[in-house]
């Protein structure tokens, strides 16, 4: 009989100790997911100096994709646009294309259920290339420059609606694009991003 009482006390003490140990264990915070973002619709407006010396807006074709983990995100962006001046006899067409990689830090990052919002600042670095096609009396000649370095600063805000592993993203961003040949320097730009993102 004493043996059974001893075993009962031993089991009771073990269960009590296990419960206390679990209570003392720190709670593990849920892991923050990382996201892959694809932006296919990115209307952009830039302000450059035209041949007439007036500031005019250009609208590049813009694509980008990015990766975000906690407060840090990276974005690779390709942009291209063309502009021409002259007439049917004499014409000059300039084509500009660039590739930038942005690093961004999310200063404010709020999440509530499926909705999230962020305010961020970023720094970009990359290169650009321009090609000038001159047409005179039906004869044309193309001159392509070497790739040149450019950089940028950005500040923006974005919001997302997440459905498990898939979601939608919308954002607006203001940028200052800097390069030695830009006129004005920096070139001011505003871009709106519409895309989708996937939880990894």
From TrEMBL:
Q: Which organism is it from?
A: Bdellovibrio bacteriovorus
Keywords, in A-Z order: Signal
The lineage's top-level taxon is Bacteria
Q: Where is the signal peptide?
A: 1-18
Q: What is this protein called?
A: Organic solvent tolerance protein
